[in-house]
Amino acid sequence: MELHGYFRSSASYRVRIGLNLKGLQYDYKPVNLLKGEQRESEYRKLQPQGLVPVLVDGNAVLTQSLAILEWLDEKHPEPALLPGDRLGRAKVRALAYNVACDIQPLQNLRILKYLQSDLGVSDEQKLGWIRKWIHEGFSALEQQLDPAPFAAGDTPGSSSAA
Q1: pTM exceeding the 0.90 threshold for the entire prediction
Q2: Which H, E and C letters describe 21-69, residue by residue?
Q3: Residue 38 to residue 109: CA distance in whole angstroms
Q4: In the sheet that 60-63 helps form, which strands lie side by side, from edge to edge?
Q5: Is 87 exposed, middle or buried (CB count within 10 Å of its CB: 0-12, 13-18, 19+)?
C-alpha cells in the first residue's frame, strides 16, 4: 500500500493513525501542499481534486480519509476502528464528521489561501477565522465525548453506547 499525504494534514493523520492501529505496512509518499505538488498532473491522475490523502492498494485508488478508514476496517476487520454495534458506529461517525466536515475544512490551506489572496483578508483576520471555527467546533465536540480513555469507549473500535 502507498499513502500519499501531507505531514500537517489532519485528514492524512487520520489515515496514518488507522493504518498504524491496524498494524498495516505502507509506503508513505509525501505531497508537499505548500510547494503545490497536489496540482501536478501525475498527482491529479490519482486525485482529481488535488487533495490528500490518497491510499493506493493494488488497483484500488481511494480518496477521502473517512472513506479510506471504513474501507480499511472492512478489508482488515481486526482490530476494529468502528464499534460492532449500530449505535456505537453512528456515534463514532458523528464525532469523525464533526472534525472532517465542520472543523477541518474551514482551516484548510486552500481555504486560507483563498481568504487572503482572493478576499484580501489580513493575517490577523485569517487567524481570527481559524480560532473562531476551531474553538466552536472543538467546544461542541468535547461535549459529545465519553469520559472513557477514547472518544467513544475504552479502546479504539469499542463503544460505550447502549
Answers
A1: no
A2: HCCCCCEEEECCCCCCHHHCHHHHHHCCCCCCCEEEECCEEEECHHHHH
A3: 12
A4: 27-30, 2-5, 54-57, 60-63
A5: exposed
156, 146 in Cβ contact below 8 A?
no
Q: Answer whether residue 162 shows pLDDT above 70.
A: no
Hey, is 101 helix, strand or coil? helix
Look-up: residue for cell 463503544?
159
Beta pairing, strands 2-5 & 54-57: antiparallel
| All three cell numbers of 6 | 501531507
Q: Are 23 and 47 in contact (CB under 8 A)?
A: no
Write down the residue that cell numbers 482572493 correspond to.
118
Q: Say how far apart CA 134 and CA 119 lie, in whole Å.
A: 21
105-142 tens-digit pLDDT: 888 888 988 999 999 999 999 999 999 999 999 999 99
CA dihedral 146, 150, 152, 155 (to 10 degrees): -140
Report in angstroms the alpha-carbon separations of 40 from 31, 50, 51, 101. 10, 8, 11, 25
Q: Which amino acid is at 126?
A: K
Here the cell at position 136 is 466552536
